[in-house]
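Hi W., the adenosine monophosphate complex you wanted:
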Amino acid sequence: MSLLTVGSVAFDAIETPFGKTDKIIGGAATYISLAASMYQKEQKIVAVVGDDFPQEMINKLQNRGVDTEGLQIKQGEKSFFWSGKYHNDMNTRDTLITELNVLENFDPLIPDNYQGTEYLMLGNLTPKVQTTVIGRLKQRPKLIAMDTMNFWMDIAYDDLRETLKLVDLLIINDEEARQLSKVSSLVTASRIIRDMGPKYLIIKKGEHGALLFHEDKIFVAPALPIEEVFDPTGAGDSFAGGFMGYISQTNDISFENMKRALIAGSATASFCVEKFGTQRLEEISQEDLQKRIQQFVELANFEMTYQLA
Ligand code: AMP
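Structure:
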């Protein structure tokens, strides 16, 4: 079953305690598609770039099975640009620059042969555009997942609340969950956010793993203790890509399968942070990923026998 991803395809400039990059390839949809391609060979993308975006990266996505008919290239315009700086703990960052450029007037056109796509991942993007995409799909996908960030909570809160009513699953980090719900307890936040629309909620907690909420059920996935986190940019998107790649490939949206998808997402994201930008995602093999998934299984697996007094 195929997966449609909508989101930014962009240039980033990143600063971490380990170094600094010039403009490199980034964007939520780029990370999501690369990550999902480890599980899913039938993908589509709806996004926009300027004529400054390298064809080489578009070719790379195509080589991984991503249909790029829905990727608009705007002549004479510039691609979205984001720049961020990580603090010493590598868990928090400041956005230094957000230049919307082509995203400012993005009209997400859906090619005819994208209709009927079973799984939709709305990557980080203007909430209005996310809503438009849902409205333009003639048949509702089996699962609509969405990501967002504090930037949109700050400047487009009402639009965001409208989009939330239309999706099945929201994937955000702990800081964003607290900002959206206006409470500090994540369990309480999960209830408040699910009352806004999504039946399922995933809260990512960086180096502390991720939580999946549905009805009265909670599942916790660990994060792999990694000695050298080099650049966390795109980890959240790689997680979402791995998760949705797995879900769409297995075509099973039960809570039990979502637990497995959470591990698939966590394993994929754990590679992303090992090098700057998309580099690590581009070079890992199926074997690398399989080994890492096994490490996750072992990390969370234990037997316990005990006797109470
Ligand atoms: P993550 O580290 O997973 O939160 O995602 C980082 C990616 O999100 C970067 O590659 C950016 O290009 C992209 N990004 C940052 N801000 C925005 C925004 N306001 N809208 C869309 N994409 C963004």
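Residues 242 and 264 are 6 Å apart (CA to CA).

W.
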